[in-house]
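Students often ask why we bother predicting the structure of a whole assembly rather than each chain alone. The short answer is interfaces. A chain on its own may look different once its partners are present, and contacts between molecules only exist in the joint model. In this exercise we take two input lines together and write out one structure for the complete complex. Read the inputs first and try to guess which parts will touch.
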Amino acid sequence: MLSENLIHELRKLNRADKLRVMQVLVTELAVEEDTLLMPGATYELLTPYGNEAAAQVLAEFLESSKKEDQ
Amino acid sequence: MARFPYIAANNLPTSLMSRLPMVLSVGGRSVEVTGLLDTGAAVSMLPYRVGLALGAVWEDQSVPVSLVGSLEQFEARALMVIGSHPQITGNSGVQLVFAWTQAENVPVIFGQMNFFFEFDVCFYRSQSAFEVNAKAST
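Now the answer. The structure tokens for the assembled complex follow.
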């Protein structure tokens, strides 16, 4: 059970530490409850989207290299 | 098919992604990389440092590749590489073409051109696993 003492101690934390505590708890809750998206979390989108024209250049490069190898 | 586990980039469970270890070679030099299997990427991408580690010389690559989006500001050039993995390609390798970008802060990405032309991949996200198979020879 959550004690008043613990709440009192948490209130004494500075802003950065409070955010850190929130982050840790939210992460743990997400894992425990199998949450699909974590509130406040940062998700990195790595996909270099929209490079179909570049893909065409690489395809032509690949094709010409194969012809040279033959 | 060779089966692989999803690999996390850090200690967050949400960072689990389909990352495939593979040996890339240019000439006599090889580098082991772990690349993200990215079906949404039109091209495969190689960060600058990996190309250098392979012994590739920027000035020798004559085919410019224009990238859009977050990588638009960085110059990129086409680079031909041999990719191999003992469980997938056996002792031989497969010719892979990359957009070699001068950007450093990007992962190795295996995209449609031409990784997914060469390899069939099945994703089992609920099992945090994926399977890779070299395409059937035609």
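Check your guess against this: The CA atoms of residues 57 and 63 of chain A lie 10 Å apart.
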